[in-house]
Design a protein that fits this description.
This protein is an alpha/beta fold. The chain has helices at 37-46, 54-57, 75-89, 102-106, 118-121, 153-157, 189-210, 222-233, 257-272, 295-307, 336-340, 345-352, 357-368, 382-391, 399-408, and strands spanning 2-7, 11-16, 21-24, 64-68, 96-100, 124-128, 137-142, 148-152, 160-166, 237-243, 249-256, 273-276, 280-286, 310-319, 370-374, 394-396, 412-415, 422-425. The protein has a 6-stranded parallel beta sheet, sandwiched between helices. The N and C termini lie far apart (50 Å).
Length: 435
Amino acid sequence: MAYRVHFGAEQYVELPELPSIWQAEPPGATAQQVPDLEAAIRDALEGPLGLPALSECLTGDDTVVLAVRRGTPCSDAIISTVVQAVLDRLTPSQPVTILRTEADAAAQRGDPRHLLSPEHARRVIIKTHQAHKAEDLAYLARLEDGRVLRLNRVLVEADVVIPIGWTQSRGTWNRYSAFGAIFPAFADHSAQQRHWREVVERVRYRKLKRMGKIRASPIRAAGSLSREADWLLGTQFALEAVPGSLGKVLRVMAGDVQRVAKESREEFLRQWGLPVKRQSDVVIAGVDHNPAHSAWENLAQAAWAAARLVNPRGQIILLADWETPGGSSPAVGLSPSEVAARGSWTDVLQELGDPVVPFWLLSRVRRRASLCVWSPRPVSQSLWREWIDWLGIETSNRVEVLERWVRSAGSVTLLSHATLVCPQRMSPPPRAPDR
């Protein structure tokens, strides 16, 4: 019997069954997807967590904004159902506004009008957040630490803001959940720059804390800032999707922002949490084809999960299908030399933000282990090749290479759907008291 590692759009490779192999498979890998997404969303809106039904939370003349978090799976299908529920409650002359990120707009996501009836589609206003445009921003308040909070004007002027997002593994480059959908996603450019500067600084402080040089980081956690921004804006009702493999949805939750954040996180960990029983010399991780993200984001997320399972100076092999239909080229649009010329990663992240983060994460993973991208076909695009070479990533497209790694390694972990998996270190057993 052979082991299978799934990757791409329903592809897999088979590897020999050996005593040195541990096949890690969280429940979410085989969990049933939501069979009827529209019905699941309507049920969540009619029976929300900690609040009355959405229809009872709105009045006919409310100005309603749906703030859509970047990368939400099945976003158009989710938004269209929420739009219908909102418009059915509002007066016929009242529209609903959808606020999306520039990244979603560039990928032609976050506009569900093609899924709506002509009557409903006419009442939908699509806004794309542009952090540089001062006229699109409005002052809301000062945060507890004194910094000014400026958000997209449609959020500040709305009667009701409903964040729509999804739950994701900790330790990644952004907060994709609805709980972090408002800040920093729809803040001004200076706030986003500061966010990325603090991302790098938190990493540095965590390292110092592990070394025992400091007790605590002086920088506020990103989640704390997101919660305060939600509170200042008066956000109460949110909708969040728990993701499944291949950009599908396992569960939908709606209701009180705090309850949704807590319970969706718990459900995500039930589905995708993976107790780390051991670390291996070699980790072979399958990279899901998630159409809501770029190929580099999917790759970096899988590498980030695999890094928690590999021994220091071990080998991570990422199984990826670069030629999957709908796959995207590097979103940053720059060569490695152009990025390197901008200075440190702190400077690069402040200037370029989300698009360059996968490369930063991959560079950090490379400090722990060697990286190889295995694909059924050779990497063809020149810009992909430039980044792969610059990051020091090997490539292969031969199954024999995988088998050789498996047979020669002292310990091997196989991990399908690594893009979603959240490895969790198991706590050591309590020490027996001295007699």
